[in-house]
Amino acid sequence: MFDNLTDRLSGAFDGIFKRGILTEDAVNQAMREVRVALLEADVSLPIAKDFVEKVKAEAIGEKVLKSVKPGEQVVKIVNDALVETLGSTNEGLNIAHTPPVAILMVGLQGSGKTTSSAKLGKFLTEKERKKVLMVSLDTQRPAAQEQLQLLGQQINVDTLEIIKGQSPVDIAKRGMDSGKKEGYDVVILDTAGRLSIDKELMSEVEAVRNLTKPRETLLVADAMTGQDAVTTADNFNSQIGVTGIILTRIDGDARGGAALSMKAVTGCPVKFMGTGEKTDALELFHPERIADRILGMGDVVSLVEKAAETIEQADAEKMAKKFQKGKFDLEDFASQLKQMRKMGGFSSIMSLMPGMGKLKSAIEDANIDDTVIKQQEAILSSMTKKERSEPRILNASRRKRIASGSGTSVQDVNRLLKQFQQMQTMMKKMRKMGGKGLMQSISGMLGGGGGQELEAMAAKMGMDIPAGLSDNSDSPLGANPFDDNGGLPSNNAANNPMGANPFAGDSMLGMGGMPELENGRPMKMNKRKKAQAKRRKGKN
Amino acid sequence: MIGFFKKKNKKPEEVEEIVETVEEVQEVQEVSQPETGWFSRLTKGLSKTSNKLTENIGAVLTKKKLDADTLEELEEALIVADMGPETAMKLTVALSKERFGKDITDEEVREFLADEIEKVLEPVMQTLVLEKQENGPCVVLMAGVNGAGKTTTIGKMAHYYSSQGKKVMLAAGDTFRAAAVEQLKVWGERSNCPVISKDTGADAGALAYEAYAEAKKQNMDILFIDTAGRLQNRTELMAELEKVVRVIKKQDETAPHATLLVLDATTGQNAHSQVDIFSRAANVSGLVMTKLDGSAKGGVIVSLAEKFKTPIYAIGIGEKIDDLRSFEAKAFARSLMGLSE
Prior knowledge:
The complex is a heterodimer.
Chain A: H1 5-13, H2 24-40, H3 45-59, H4 70-86, E1 101-106, H5 113-126, E2 132-136, H6 144-155, E3 158-159, H7 168-181, E4 186-190, H8 199-212, E5 216-222, H9 229-240, E6 244-248, H10 257-266, E7 270-274, E8 282-284, H11 287-294, H12 300-310, H13 313-325, H14 330-342, H15 345-352, H16 357-365, H17 370-381, H18 385-389, H19 396-406, H20 410-445, H21 450-469, H22 481-485, H23 490-495, E9 517-518, E10 521-522, H24 525-539
Helix pairs in contact in A: 1-2, 1-4, 2-3, 3-4, 4-11, 5-6, 7-8, 9-10, 12-21, 13-20, 14-17, 17-19, 19-20
Chain B: H1 2-8, H2 12-32, H3 38-47, H4 52-60, H5 68-80, H6 84-99, H7 106-121, E1 138-144, H8 150-163, E2 168-171, H9 180-191, E3 195-196, H10 204-217, E4 222-225, H11 235-251, E5 258-264, H12 270-282, E6 286-290, H13 300-308, E7 312-316, E8 324-326, H14 329-336
């Protein structure tokens, strides 16, 4: 199965584009692929169809730029249209009104309303300096009211006292009264989860709306939602009038096509995204990130953020310095492995990487998983500190000891050392070639440069990615060793698991990048080096 | 991976046996719940909304001749039910092989597709048999992403099995989410089952360990262990789940005797990733699909059955304690196609 649109399109376009213009035929063919990609990302069918029609009209007749492949150009058009449709960033809340202002939270069961209510309560209290009262109207689910109360205690936001047996409308009334009397700016009304086709419960929430006249009615929806998103969003919007959407569980690996469906069908902006289980994991909406996910281009920003989160600042700075000096010992290798594992191991990183879909499945087929990282970590921790900082003292008897200490074989130890050697060589070469700019990006990547630099880096990478995907020599991720072979040779891969490392490219070095290997030898190293050198020349 | 599934797959004879027991159980259920039969509840649930899928198929086939356009529209109708582009294509290809260019009625198309879907679903339709083990209780572990309906499903299952005369105990293993323990306690009261719990923030593995010891001491038949919701790409949380399984195995190596993954019917294609990763981490033995009373049709179950062949044990069709039904391939396929039983 194709994993991303660029792969798909480069297949579809093979041999079609010679004339320098996107013809109707070619575009039609491409759009079929776009449509399937959207559907696989859970964009609702009617929305996907409309969207494709719109994009088609834009694409036909576009001049093909010489520098990019037609497939990539179409992806760009699609991507831009997606971002545009998803709406602009920073749609704040509309709560400038006579207090207390009601915010009504609605949605299906289990979409994340209560957690989102608490996150929003915290956000408004801390970032907007509002006095917030949270009120749970959920008399359906056992202990739902207690859940909001507990969350309120955790985040220091007041909740309305629970009186058992009161109806949601009564509780809402009491909440608004308290809001008025006790001088709250905002009253967040968390409602019970309900199906949009449940007439009884829908009219109940309608009654709450009529009573409290909320300035914002936020539909809380799960990013994993499938085709039903369009029905649910439409029903909620037409019956109670939605003003915005909170997209939850964006930290999962769903493609999030539901966001596009809901935005399109309600016309309401997605205002926030839930990015985790903690109460501060709420962010303003970033359409670009969702667009990239929908197209299967990976979420490079998330990857970079994840890296920034998990790689400790001090470690990062230390390592960046080491890189600059061209020093890289087994100690560093070990800490890179640790970082990789902290970031969730191969498959987790890979799922965020653009264009890695194919590689990911190849790796899974070849049975490479994080046990390899664990094994290598075991080997490294069976070494003495001295051995790690001076790997050259590792003679045969030491290697034997390490192998038995880590439950591996001497061959495993040798393999690791060979890999390490190649990494070292590569790093030295890169230092010579890359010059200052490269070192800066590495240190930026490792967190030394702070958030802004990371963002910029991500933006740069994001831009480069589509171009790189179908042409290895230009790839910012480094040459993909497997495309040449048309897949991952399983024996090589099993022997040299780190060779499958997507971070072999320069930008990703700090995250455990290692050179590609084939039977323990560097693979097409020269070709790769040349390509890198060429690219760098071009950039400077 | 293949080996893993092979191990799980039952031999043909066993499957037959299971099918028989399925029928028996269904009969029992029909007797005990005369007013709300499985199918009527399901169709009621599915038809609460105007059933778009069948509307679509009806609209597609005004032409009566099965041509390429019609097939494409049919394929789309299947996609709208979350079956995913791949499965939808497969089904329409099967239809076109048989009937392309021939006249066909709306009813015939539905029957044909329902039959095809049933063929896919039949092998995964299995009964959850929970029998007390020689050396202790039968342990059932519930897993799933946040908000899928794990706790509610445990409540319903506890009610079902205890009303069958089994001694059931619940373990409030969601020690992360606020008030999750309280939520399970309410279900314990409703189903008259004891609940073992610790404070929020406690170690889930330790809780599972203690619950097992307690269930064994009290001579329980079944122990349901709830877990915190976790997104499958959160490696550290999946590792925690693996740990819970390891800890349970310390007291009984054969446990957990069933590990159920709870899937929300509203979920789209991400369900594939959920089944894949949860299966690897916790050796999922079967699925429960919840919230089928909504407007979502849960068609993803068809492509899941095709790809993973994981048994489907039950479906949830409401928030009430008896809103749980065993999964029936035929009924599900037919209601998906808007056909009567």
